[in-house]
Design brief:
about 230 residues, alpha/beta, 6-stranded mixed sheet, two-stranded antiparallel sheet, 10 strands
Length: about 230
């Protein structure tokens, strides 16, 4: 059985996951909302975003628990830097890694563009049908990337609640790290913005600092990297 496991805050990784699930005729399961019995399969396709050149904390925990014979690792990134996350993920997960890819997408903190060329996924679907173990090489990662990445994101991006909040609890239900209650963010927040995108009333808003906007505006990397 093939399963696409997806971690997505603002929809970029979900768009890739849906395209792959369509090609493979399989289901999508959400990382951060899984039972222990759902962590075993024949082929696991794991799709997740790059956060500050790092693997998101919920994804790292998931990879440690996943039990699959074959694994495909796909990292979406916001056209700045993908760091070394596929190599790091490869060293965490059990099972044979048979494919990997870095896919440039819109940035979580910049825009909602979730478009990409689905043809990029065709070779991955073919490899799943004919699995062969590979080794993903190291890529460059900024030496400063591991210094409190979640804290840096919290400084750069502010999330606030407006008066449209109805206390429905959807944000608490969707938060993968238990970082929000009644629309109020705590220090566990990793700024995935899942709470913002899942609020039915659009009661949560985010704003970047001027320094972060300037930093993000200087980079527009479009590298698609495929490992087979």
């Amino acid at each position: 059985m093939t399963v696409v496991y997806c971690f997505s805050g603002s929809g970029h990784s979900l768009a890739v996951s849906r395209a792959l699930a369509g090609l493979l005729a399989c289901e999508i399961r959400e990382i951060g909302a899984l039972g222990e019995s759902l962590l075993t399969c024949g082929v696991a396709v794991v799709v997740f975003p790059v956060y500050c050149q790092n693997i998101p904390k919920p994804v790292k925990s998931f990879l440690k628990e996943l039990r699959a014979e074959h694994v495909v690792l796909i990292a979406t990134y916001g056209k700045i830097s993908y760091g070394n996350v596929l190599y790091e993920a490869q060293n965490i997960v059990s099972g044979e890694v048979i494919a990997g890819a870095y896919i440039p997408m819109g940035h979580t903190f910049l825009d909602g563009d979730i478009s990409f060329d689905t043809k990029l996924l065709f070779p991955i679907a073919e490899r799943i049908n004919k699995p062969e173990k590979i080794r993903i090489p190291k890529a460059f990662k900024n030496p400063l990337a591991d210094i409190f990445p979640a804290f840096r994101s919290r400084i750069g991006v502010k999330i606030t609640k407006n008066d449209r909040c109805t206390s429905c609890g959807k944000c608490e239900e969707k938060c993968p790290v238990g970082a929000i209650r009644n629309g109020k963010i705590n220090s566990r927040c990793i700024r995935c913005l899942r709470c913002v995108s899942s609020c039915p009333e659009k009661a949560l808003e985010y704003k970047n600092t001027a320094i972060l906007d300037k930093y993000l505006g200087n980079y527009h990397k479009e590298d698609y990297v495929l490992y087979l």
